[in-house]
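Q: Here's a chain of 240 amino acids. Please give me its 3D structure as tokens.
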Amino acid sequence: MARAKRKTKRKGGLSRVVKVALLLLVLAGGAAAWFVIDRQAWRPDEAVWPDQGALLAADDGPVAFDTLKGLGAKFVYLEASDGTEGRDIAFAQNLARAGQAGLEVGAVHRFDPCDVADGQSANFVTMVPRDAALLPAAILLEGNAEDCAERVSDAAVQSELMTLVNQIEAHTGKAVILAPSDEFEQLYGVSRRIDRQLWLTSSWSEPDYAVRPWLMWTANRWYRNEAAQSPLRWVVVRPF
């Protein structure tokens, strides 16, 4: 009696369909990686936006200001104070180094909707000298009052912000620039309520969330460059 032939499994690699699927995944992943890298290196065309610079915070780490200027930066804003107690201990040193590199410099206060204006302005005044050579100070407006230890109404946030604006302007002698995030603008209507120049944020595309034209634009929040190990926030000024 003839024996039935035993079917043997073919040894080998993955099926052709699986190989094609894996190849497509690899290609897609590579394209996505290049897309991210390209985005991080992007900044607006200097021919259209000649006034460009950076916004620096304490956690950005050391920055080579000479290199930053060589990349085309004309100015730099430094976060100096945060609420009533937060401070960048390197602010004074960075202020001096940026000036020595030939950059115009401005100071930034990060507004805390949970704190009253008096303590916040006192913190700013402690950190920032009264110097006519400085650019107009900017107030960074992010977050909201939902996480405050005690309830703070929208009206109270708006009132304290206006008081802070007046106090900082009394110290610097110049009108401040308000920098609301999209969230802060939607909650508190800064562009509708306070008549000051605006600084908006929208990576890779011009912002449109304010009711008035803006002066400054954070165009890339993750700009990688030779001046710093960490990405920097790259800023441009609207040309006139």
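Q: Can you summarize the key feature?
A: Residues 1-12, 26-37 have pLDDT under 50 and may be disordered.
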